[in-house]
Amino acid sequence: MREKEKKLLSTEEYLYRTGWVLLPIGIIGAFLITNWLVPLLPESSECLFWKFWGIYCPGCGGTRSLLALFRGDFLQSAWYHPLVMYVVLMYAWFMLSHTLEKLRVPLIKGMKFEVWIMYGMVVVLVLNCILKNVLKFGFGILM
Predict the structure, then answer these.
(1) Is 66 part of a structural domain of the chain?
(2) What is the pLDDT of residues 48-83, one digit of tens each?
């Protein structure tokens, strides 16, 4: 085995390679979901939190957000569920920075995977849930 092959991949290199594998899968998946699966879904699909307790769950709006993202409506996607856009932006930043570093663009270093990214996801998830329920119960605004 060559020395380079023996070396374990760093977390960032593993995530970068995985990101390139997932990109075409995501594009094909988005096309299939938007054009094949969504037309088959019943209009009356409801979240169980909403159905039984009348509150928004932490994931409420996620499907609508993904569909808006697939249509290219980024602001609507962020409105439905900001976590989707957060993940897309982190992915884009990570992949772009590592690609530019591999192309040896001066002064560009690939984004390091840090714990704050995961904490940020949790914060966005919790704040989104709280905000939607405050708007519903406090002001009568339904999302």
Answers:
(1) yes
(2) 787 888 888 898 888 889 888 888 899 999 999 999
Residue 90 pLDDT: 93
What's the domain count of the chain?
1
Q: How far apart are CA 86 and CA 107, in angstroms?
A: 25
The answer as to whether 21 is a domain residue is no
Of the candidates 89, 115, 82, the residue with the CA atom closest to the CA atom of residue 97 = 89
The whole-angstrom separation of Cα 36 and Cα 33 is: 6
| Cα gap 122→128, rounded to integer Å | 10
Cα-based distances in Å from 90 to 94, 111, 137, 140:
6, 9, 32, 33
Q: Where are the beta strands (DSSP E) in the chain?
A: none
pLDDT digits (tens, 9 = 90+) for 32-53: 887 887 777 766 567 778 788 8
3-state SS class at 36: helix
Name the pTM for this structure.
Answer: 0.78
Among 64, 73, 52, residue whose Cα is nearest residue 128:
64
Residue 92 belongs to domain spanning: 60-143
